From TrEMBL:
Catalytically driven reaction(s): N(1)-(5-phospho-beta-D-ribosyl)glycinamide + (6R)-10-formyltetrahydrofolate = N(2)-formyl-N(1)-(5-phospho-beta-D-ribosyl)glycinamide + (6S)-5,6,7,8-tetrahydrofolate + H(+)
Key word Transferase present: yes
Residue ranges of domain Formyl transferase N-terminal in the record: 5-183
Enzyme superclass (EC): transferase
Site description Raises pKa of active site His, residues in chain: D146
Protein residues bound to (6R)-10-formyltetrahydrofolate: R66, M91, R92, I93, L94, N108
GO CC annotations on file: cytosol
Protein name, per record: Phosphoribosylglycinamide formyltransferase
Entry EC no(s): 2.1.2.2
Organism from which the protein derives: Sphingorhabdus contaminans
């Protein structure tokens, strides 16, 4: 299995990092930890990682400006060959350049049910507000603090006698379960048929008068009351593959495409020469390219009156 390579950044006890690391010991875990880095050379988590034979890096941020410090971290992360970054109690505001570098590939765990209680003292704030439930969230990191898309959450019931400490301890238990699961799901989402179908749907449904139906159990997109322009093949006859089928000009184009990249393109059984199958589960799908294919395929089946309208609209 080709596992995602994760660098974990910590500042303190590193128990979430420990949870990520031990989860990664399962042979079917889709990620591995390649580096544990810290801005605090005394972070307890560093010795846990070292004891498990994981590469570590620690340097105090004191006296180093933010951009320069993040550049040092970036260099270490690159050196370790990381494909993703997991923040786990990393108590540093990140520079925009660093966040941009890891756009869509950096996750964080936060001890509240976001969007509630960004920032610090989340448990006390939940208690002060008289909340009945607290919890934790894993989210993608964007430039605004704790505001990126939430990928997963766990609720934790608040008891009448809770203090910030007792509540925090239970939320930590929930964090340790949540983070490895969400990270695993996230790094392997581009092999997950449901996620792949959702990507196609998002793009197919932007075509004019698009409609989704199911054809022989396949998600299928067509023009309302008209012809179909895309099918998604999911595990067809148990082949384990996920692919999109779109219209092409004919046998010549089909042969040319298959010749150009035989792992990605194929002749879809029963569809004939007018269609091409494009694998979506190879892990390197260019979704803009798929959007172009969908637009082209739509155009190939759309009635003249619709394409004319689009052409006219395009001129303004
Ligand atoms: C956790 O509560 C996490 O949600 C927050 O910082 C804390 C880190 O704890 N971002 P640990 O270092 O993983 O024990």
């Amino acid at each position: 299995m080709n596992r995602a390579k994760v660098a974990v950044l910590i500042s303190g006890s590193g128990t979430n990092m420990g949870a990520l690391l031990y989860a990664a010991k399962q042979p079917d875990c889709p990620y591995e930890i390649v580096l544990v880095a810290s801005n605090n050379p005394d972070a307890e988590g560093l010795s846990l990682a070292q004891g498990e034979g994981i590469a570590t890096f620690a340097q105090s941020h004191k006296g180093v400006d933010r951009a320069a410090f993040d550049a040092i971290m970036q260099q270490q992360i690159e050196k370790a060959g990381a494909t993703h970054v997991a923040l786990a109690g990393y108590m540093r505001i990140l520079s925009d350049a660093f966040v941009e570098q890891w756009d869509g590939r950096m996750l964080n765990i936060h001890p509240s049910l976001l969007p509630k209680y960004t920032g610090l003292h989340t448990h006390q704030r939940a208690l002060d507000a008289g909340d009945k439930v607290a919890g934790c969230s894993v989210h993608l990191v964007t430039p605004e603090l704790d505001a990126g898309p939430v990928l997963g959450q766990t609720e934790v019931a608040i008891r009448p006698d809770d203090t910030a400490e007792t509540l925090g301890a239970r939320v930590k238990l929930a964090e340790h379960q949540l983070y490895p699961r969400v990270l695993s799901a996230y790094v392997s989402r581009d092999k997950n048929p449901e996620w792949l179908v959702a990507q196609v749907r998002e793009r197919a449904m932007t075509q004019p008068e698009a409609d989704e139906i199911s054809s022989h159990g396949m998600p299928c997109f067509g023009i309302i009351g008209g012809k179909k322009f895309a099918y998604v093949s999911v595990d067809h006859h148990g082949d384990g593959k996920t692919a999109i089928l779109v219209k092409i000009s004919g046998a010549e184009e089909q042969a040319m495409l298959i010749d150009s990249d035989p792992d990605r393109y194929y002749r879809p059984a029963y569809f004939g020469d007018g269609w091409i199958g494009i694998r979506l589960d190879l892990g390197d799908t260019d979704w803009d390219h798929i959007a172009d294919w969908l637009a082209k395929s739509w155009r190939a089946v759309a009635p003249k009156k619709l394409t004319k309208l689009i052409d006219v609209a395009g001129e303004f």
